[in-house]
Amino acid sequence: MADPVLSVRGLEVTFIASGRAVPAVRGIDFDVFPNEVLGIVGESGSGKSVTSLAIAGLLPETGARRRLCFARRDRSHYR
């Protein structure tokens, strides 16, 4: 089996609202392999957009913690 082109492990995103930490996404793990398509589905407010924004590095500086590998390179970022 080929190595994944995207590997997400333990994705957690927490926002600060009114001085309190509010968890938005917790414990997301998945891999995307070559020639594979991944669809993320869920109810409104379940964290689909926040997950995508965290992976793309487009969240504000308020508490994104993630473990991310893209094309076998570690792109983890902890704030």
Radius of gyration: 13 Å
Task: Bin the helical content.
Answer: 10-25%
Number of strands: 5
Our estimate of the beta-strand percent is: over 45%
- What is the total domain count? 1
Shape, principal axes of CA atoms: elongated
Class based on secondary structure composition and strand pairing: mainly beta
What is the makeup of the main sheet?
5 strands, antiparallel
Unreliable stretches (pLDDT < 50, length at least 5) are none
**Mean of residue pLDDT values:** 79
Order of helical and strand elements: EEHEEE
**Distance between termini?**
33 Å
Number of continuous helical runs: 1
Structure description:
With 79 residues, this protein is mostly beta strands. It has one domain (6-78). Helix content is 11%, strand content 46%. The protein contains 1 helix and 5 strands, in the order ββαβββ. The chain has one helix at 48-56; strands spanning 6-17, 20-32, 64-70, 73-74, 77-78. Strands 1, 2, 3, 4 and 5 form a 5-stranded antiparallel sheet that branches. The longest helix has 9 residues, at 48-56. It is elongated, with a radius of gyration of 13 Å. The termini are far apart.
